[in-house]
Amino acid sequence: MSENFVEPGSFAALQHEHAELGKALASIGRVLTVPHRKKAEMEDLIGQLADHVETHFHHEEDGGYFSAALKKSPRLTDQANILLEQHTALAEQIQKLRMLARSGVETDGWWKLLEEQFADFKARLLEHERKENELLQDAFGVDIGTAD
């Protein structure tokens, strides 16, 4: 077993995934600030982020992180369902961002649109993850930390 192994479905796995999402968001943010940025690099980074988001949502939806919380605190079911429903809109948003990164001509206007759409996605994703952390903290009465 690798020393980086975390048990799937555990809080450690959730924290690990949140940290990976945070790193991916930060990498994109850094590239967006450099003067001689490359479209191909941005395509790759956004593709990696989209893959992380897809995997993370799958883990949450497929009997993962929320299962134990809802067994312990069934009163949180409605709140968990709202969060799970947000996955569709967030997944669509990251796929649109991925398509934007792959398309178009690399112009100042294209970069500006990409920056704006990335900033919106990042804000929505971080707020979503914050609410997920709150749900789990409420269910278990522990502070599991944040990715930011």
> Approximately what portion of the residues adopt beta-strand conformation?
under 5%
SSE pattern, N- to C-terminal: HHHHH
Could you give the distance between the termini?
28 Å
Number of domains: 1
Quantity of strands, as a count: 0
Helix content: over 70%
Low-confidence stretches at least 5 residues in length (pLDDT < 50)?
1-8
**Spatial extent as radius of gyration:** 17 Å
Structural class, judged by helices and strands? Answer: mainly alpha
Q: What is the overall shape?
A: elongated
Number of helices: 5
Mean pLDDT over all positions: 85
How is the biggest beta sheet arranged?
none
Description:
There is one protein chain. By secondary structure, the chain is mainly α. It has one domain. Helices cover 76% and strands 0% of the residues. Helix 1 packs antiparallel against helix 2, helix 3 runs parallel beside helix 5 and helix 4 packs antiparallel against helix 5. The N terminus is likely disordered.
Compose a concise summary of this entry.
The protein is mainly alpha-helical. The protein is 76% helix and 0% strand. It has five helices and no strands.
